[in-house]
Amino acid sequence: MPDGRGAAREEAILRATLELVAEIGYDRMTMDAIAARAQASKATIYRRWPGKAELVVAAVRGHAGSAALTPPDTGVFRDDLLGVLRLMRDGLLAQDAALILGLMIAMHRDPALAEAVRARFVRDKHAMFGAVIARAADRGDLPAKVDDALFTEISSSMLFSRLFVAGEPLDDAFVHHLVDEVLLPLLDHRTGQNQGVPDVADDPSQRPRRGAGR
Predict the structure, then answer these.
(1) Is the per-residue pLDDT at 66 higher than 80?
(2) Please, what sign has the CA dihedral across residues 14, 16, 21, 26?
(3) Which long-range contacts (CB under 8 A, 24 or more apart) does 206-213 make?
(4) Across the chain, what does the average pLDDT equal?
(5) Which 3-state string (H, E, C) describes 179-204?
(6) 14, 58 Cβ separation under 8 angstroms
(7) Residue 13: C-alpha distances to residues 10, 42, 193 (Å)
(8) What's residue 159's pLDDT?
(9) Angle between helices 77-93 and 123-139 (to 10 degrees)
(10) Phi, psi angle pair for 169, to nearest 5°
């Protein structure tokens, strides 16, 4: 862990990185520009981060709140889903719109950046949903196999679209709507298909138990 001076230098580098990505974009940003803005040497930067992609990911993660988040464990599947979505929502709200949109554009042109972002953010979300779904399956609330990747993709897309495209608030009412009107009905439908039973929309008795405790 960096000492006081090292931590201050690291913070300056990460802050300079975020500022430059938002101002000129990932493609145009260089290590020289970051070093100049942060008043640090390139050698110092490369000792800590092997390349521009890793540096940007570290800067975005630090801005959003450091390490990977731990999914909630309430003993109730629906409440756990709400907890995961609130974590995702809060992380998204902590980000700068220009920074996020700039990164998305750059990811299409830079495979190294795309892989670094997916490795640190997308997989974190998969892990959170996966943990919540696995616990629910262990309790008998869900079938043994549920596609957590689909939950992650739908949730991320709807939260992002709501905030950056529609410009609507990501309040608790929307989080509840996403769980109760999208994710749980989708789970009901796919569970019914996998088990070969009638569509659970027409047969509520087939719904997986959402509120069972331990």
Answers:
(1) no
(2) negative
(3) 208/77, 208/136, 208/141, 208/142, 208/143, 209/77, 209/140, 209/141, 210/76, 210/77, 210/78, 210/141, 210/184, 211/76, 211/77, 211/78, 212/76, 212/77, 212/139, 212/140, 212/141, 213/75, 213/76
(4) 81
(5) HHHHHHHHHHHHHHHHHCCCCCCCCH
(6) yes
(7) 5, 10, 51
(8) 93
(9) 170
(10) -70, 145
Q: What is the DSSP letter of 206?
A: G
What's the rounded Cα separation, in Å, for the pair 94 and 97?
9
Kind and range of the H or E run holding 131:
helix 123-139
Place of tokens 């569509």: 199
Q: Return the residue matching tokens 């509840």.
A: 176
Residues in the chain: 214
User: HSE (CB half, 13 Å, CA atoms) of 104?
Assistant: 11
- pLDDT tens, position by position, 115-130: 877 777 777 888 888 8
**Tokens describing residue 55:** 């540096």
Q: What is the pLDDT of residues 132-181, one digit of tens each?
A: 999 998 988 888 777 788 888 899 899 989 998 898 999 999 999 999 99
Residue 142 is predicted with a pLDDT of: 84
Judged against a pLDDT cut of 80, whether residue 209 lies above it is answered with no
